[in-house]
Design brief:
17 helices; alpha/beta; Double Stranded RNA Binding Domain; TIM Barrel; eight-stranded parallel β-barrel; three-stranded antiparallel sheet; 16 strands; elongated; 20% strand
């Protein structure tokens, strides 16, 4: 079986995505997960650009990674500067990484307009840089920046750039679609042509500006590329990079080629969610293979068919990538959806059980009032358990008050005061927040943290409000959806009421109680 090398650049290219900022500790934790997954190369950052990346390379060298090799990222030497005198290359050498990826200009437009150098000088820069790093004992990969644009506009010069890197000792030539605008058919054609001219490892590095980075990466592999560069969850600048999660799955499950090892494929969902959590980014529910909705079924016809033969509406067994099948509960799914969901959480129900009819009636009633349980499965699980009297509440509310104050200095403050009864004890706490719901969340956690320490491991990752009956004006009912996350999972809860604070309270309580049930915490 042919092997495709996987090169991850989440810690460098991925960190350039809007809203992402990794600490050194974050980068170390992600590197450990990537190593456990079996990623061949991990690009940790640009040691010559900032102290954080240099500190990372020093610390990661002490980890003794089992599967992954660390790669330092750098650019070609500056124009009219000796490679040995270039500070960025010096930092690369002292980074302790055994591999270095050099990105260089390949498009004559960039050479002239950005570098302000001659075409000849750029070729010399590529050769000098690769030779210098090789002379220092590093194994060098060359990222041919903007290669597809360059090949389209000045084919001869783009070829001179990559052959210069290869002749200087580069062990891999990586063709980069840096602007992310090349169509898949062109990527396939160009990679196939270059494959016949390059004797070393040939890689592909795609950005997603045209929405086809995954397709372009797979096409490149089909055309002969040996290495795929990308990021976990497709994080990256602008529209992101090629998402390695579905790419790895496609290489193994669709192309029949070896990448990280078939025994590691089942870890894809875990790693996708882990990196999302560390990146403080909401996990995409519709992400292929590993998203919560990737194997979710809602319509009664679909559910019925999948129960008879999963292949009717699923292209793979979700367990292969560490995911699971979900039957969405709604008024469209009937009793079947309820029975299947009950089985998932070890509740004994069938279509003929009286409780099933009772739950279906309750579900239809609540959805008619504005609840939307397919978007809040955690709340539906709690609803089922409450209805079947399968657990006791973890606390009892005696009352809460939320105060919003606008001061003369135009600052607005929110404070929540809450009274609870927890395990026989009365708790009376107060907390401030950025808004009334945040203050209420802070006060609730403050009251419960001593009794349930695991709550410190979760946080709210998304908060949505929708007005359900706009014609009622300020008296309209609102639906609040809250997504919560901890180190391993994410879950959604719901609340509906004419008062937005009460709707938020319902969703908050469900979020807390679901976390405690999930962790196996004993109730009162």
């Amino acid at each position: 079986m042919a092997q495709v090398t996987i090169y991850d650049t989440t810690l460098r290219d991925g960190s350039q995505g809007e809203g992402i900022s990794y600490s050194v500790t974050d980068k170390i934790r992600i590197a450990e997960e990537l190593d456990a997954l079996g990623i061949h190369y991990i690009e940790g950052g640009w040691p010559g650009s900032n102290p954080k990346d240099m500190e990372f390379y020093v610390k990661v060298a002490k980890l003794h990674l089992k599967n992954s090799a660390m790669v330092a990222f750098c650019s070609t030497r500056r124009p009219n500067t000796a490679a040995e005198d270039d500070p960025n290359l010096k930092s690369t050498v002292t980074s302790q990484a055994k591999y270095a990826t050099v990105f260089g200009k390949t498009w004559d437009l960039h050479v002239k307009d950005v570098l302000k150098a001659t075409l000849e000088e750029n070729i010399a820069m590529i050769k000098d840089t690769v030779r210098f790093l090789v002379s220092k004992g590093l194994i060098v990969f060359y990222d041919a920046e903007h290669f597809f644009d360059a090949y389209r506009t000045n084919r001869e010069y783009s070829l001179l750039c990559i052959t210069a890197a290869e002749s200087a000792g580069a062990k891999a030539i990586v063709l980069c679609d840096t602007n992310g605008g090349t169509l898949t058919s062109e990527v396939f054609r160009v990679v196939r042509e270059i494959r016949g001219q390059v004797k070393v490892l040939l890689g592909i590095h795609c950005h997603n500006d045209a929405g086809i980075a995954i397709a372009n990466s797979i096409a490149a592999v089909e055309a002969g590329a040996d290495m795929v560069q990308g990021t976990i969850n497709g994080y990256g600048e602008r529209c992101g990079n090629a998402d390695l999660i579905p790419i790895i799955a496609n290489i193994s499950l669709k192309l029949g080629k070896e990448s990280i090892g078939t025994d590691k494929i089942k870890e894809l969902t875990h790693v996708s969610h882990f990196v999302s959590e560390i990146s403080n980014m909401r996990q995409r529910s519709d992400q292929p293979y590993t998203g919560a909705s990737a194997f979710a079924h809602k319509g009664g016809v679909h559910i019925n068919a999948v129960m008879k033969n999963p292949a009717t509406y699923e292209h793979i067994d979700p367990a292969v990538v560490g995911n699971h099948r979900r039957m969405l509960v709604s008024e469209l799914g009937g009793k079947t959806g309820i029975v299947i969901r009950a089985k998932d959480i070890n509740l004994d129900l069938n279509k003929d059980t009286p409780q099933t009819k009772k739950l279906l009636d309750l579900l239809q009633k609540l959805e008619n009032e504005g609840y939307h349980f397919e978007a809040a499965e955690a709340s539906f699980e709690l609803l089922m358990k409450r209805s079947l009297k399968k657990y006791k509440k973890f606390f009892d509310l005696e009352g809460f008050r939320v105060v919003i104050e606008k001061r003369s200095d135009k600052n607005i403050t929110s404070e929540a005061i809450i009274k609870l009864k927890v395990k026989g004890a009365k708790e009376h706490t107060a907390a401030e927040g950025d808004g009334p719901v945040n203050a209420l969340d802070n006060a609730l956690r403050k009251a419960l943290s001593e009794f349930y320490p695991t709550l410190s491991k979760m946080h709210l990752s998304d908060f949505k409000v929708r007005v359900l009956d706009e014609k009622s004006g300020t008296a309209a009912r609102v639906r609040v959806l809250i997504q919560s996350q901890d180190e391993t999972d994410s879950w959604s809860t719901i609340g509906v009421h004419e008062n937005i604070i009460e709707a938020s309270w319902q969703a908050l309580v469900d979020s807390i109680e679901y976390k405690l049930l999930k962790d196996g915490v004993k109730d009162t």
